[in-house]
Design a protein that fits this description.
- By secondary structure, the chain is of the alpha/beta class.
- The protein has 2 domains: 122 residues, P-loop containing nucleotide triphosphate hydrolases (Rossmann fold); 255 residues, no CATH class.
- The chain is 43% helix and 18% strand.
- It has a 6-stranded mixed beta sheet with strand order 9-10-11-12-14-13. A 5-stranded parallel beta sheet has the order 2-3-4-1-5, sandwiched between helices.
- 39% of the residues are buried.
């Protein structure tokens, strides 16, 4: 079993809060992780899958049922399908606020987040689970190049990453996309054509890593800019897309003000781009942008919650792929370069100088770390976790 880095976060939250919400996109491993955490609870645990009629029947009178298990952790899977449970949980928690009572799993539906924040404010702590990260799948005796290639091409969804071969992985990812569009979104109450949303998602894949341009999408889809904005926000809320915001700095230079858009899972990106095997990436125009998004997602997932992440780009072309802002005004510059022997661009150096950043990293697809000068270091993606610990 692959150890998930959020395991400790969930256990710590259960020791402090009456309820913990484990959110993440569909099929990212929430159920497996929740069952693993529950199996180690001294007081025992009850698991209810709210997609199963038998488990839903147990909650016909939820207050009576849950009150009988006040001394055990109750895991409620797919709770976004039953938002009417949130007021009941609030009442039960207000009667007995002991920590570790409920672990609610949800597929990051905006409806779930809105309901829970309104009903359980101050009573619940959220933990976000991503698909597999390179820090989770890489082992000491692994071929680092092959493990990186596999995770990059297949993405981090467990069923995709652990598939017996690349063809099986691709089949799973295509089915995931279809199911999400044609079943899950309608069940969650989103009134949008699955055909139009698929086309929108495919268009996003082709501009992965670029600055968002609403009018371009609106013209292509023959709709309005506010409509395509809602489509983008929907995929963002479902943790399928990341809108990386620009850094707003008090500088004389004109800066880009729109977000950059990334598909959060590289495997889904490749499926939407119709890339059927790893070799097809290397000759594709998306190569650099694909690895950039893959690296950025892994870096962000390793950062502490208090870190703020943005990108920096001026209208003259000076750019930093990822600016990590830490307490005390401390900033780290991160650039991504798909090569084993990167060079520091003038645009990156100028951007660092603009922002007064004294420490930078170039994340690479190589195997060894080495300094590029006194302030910038090249670091392979699989080693970046060791460096983040010193930030």
């Amino acid at each position: 079993m692959i150890y998930r880095q959020e395991t400790q976060s969930i256990e710590s939250a259960l020791d402090q809060f009456p309820a913990v919400g484990l959110i993440g996109s569909r099929q990212c491993g929430k159920t497996t992780l929740a069952k693993d955490v529950a199996s180690r609870r001294k007081e025992g645990a009850i698991y209810l899958d709210l997609e199963l009629p038998s488990d839903r029947a147990a909650l016909t009178e939820p207050e009576l049922y849950l009150d009988r298990h006040v001394d055990r952790l109750v895991v409620l899977d797919e709770i976004q399908r039953h938002p009417e449970l949130f007021p009941t949980l609030r009442g039960l928690i207000d009667r007995d606020r002991r920590p570790g009572r409920f672990l609610a799993l949800g597929s990051a539906s905006p409806h779930m987040l809105r309901q829970s924040s309104e009903s359980l404010a101050g009573r619940i702590s959220f933990v976000e689970l991503t698909p597999f990260l390179i820090s989770e799948v890489m082992r000491a005796d692994d071929d680092t190049r092959e493990t990186t290639r596999r995770l990059w091409f297949r993405g981090g969804y467990p069923e995709s990453y652990l598939s017996g071969d690349d063809a099986g992985s691709l089949t799973w990812r295509r089915a995931f996309i279809t199911t999400l569009l044609e079943r899950d979104m309608p069940q969650w109450g989103f009134r949008v054509s699955s055909v139009r949303m698929r086309r929108f998602w495919e268009m996003l894949a082709h501009v992965h890593g670029q600055v968002w341009n609403a009018s371009r999408f609106a013209n292509s889809l023959d709709t309005s800019a506010p409509t395509v904005r809602r489509h983008l926000d929907l995929l963002t809320d479902l943790l399928l897309v990341r809108q990386l915001q620009p850094l707003h700095a008090n500088l004389k230079k004109r800066l880009v003000k729109s977000p950059k858009v990334y598909l959060r899972d590289s495997g889904l990106l490749h499926a939407l781009l119709l890339l059927s095997d790893p070799e097809s990436i290397y000759g594709h125009p998306c190569l650099g942008a694909s690895f950039e998004g893959f690296a950025i997602e892994n870096v962000i997932s390793l950062l502490p919650s208090f870190a703020d992440v943005t990108f920096y780009r001026s209208h003259t072309g000076d750019e930093i792929d990822l600016v990590v802002s830490l307490p005390g005004g401390h900033r780290i510059a991160v650039d991504v370069n798909y090569t084993a022997s990167p060079r520091v661009s003038k645009a990156f150096r100028t951007a660092m100088a603009d922002l007064g950043i004294s420490r930078g990293y170039i994340v690479t697809a190589g195997e060894t770390a080495f300094p590029l000068d006194e302030s910038i270091e090249a670091v392979p993606l699989h080693l970046i976790a060791h460096h983040i610990g010193s930030w």
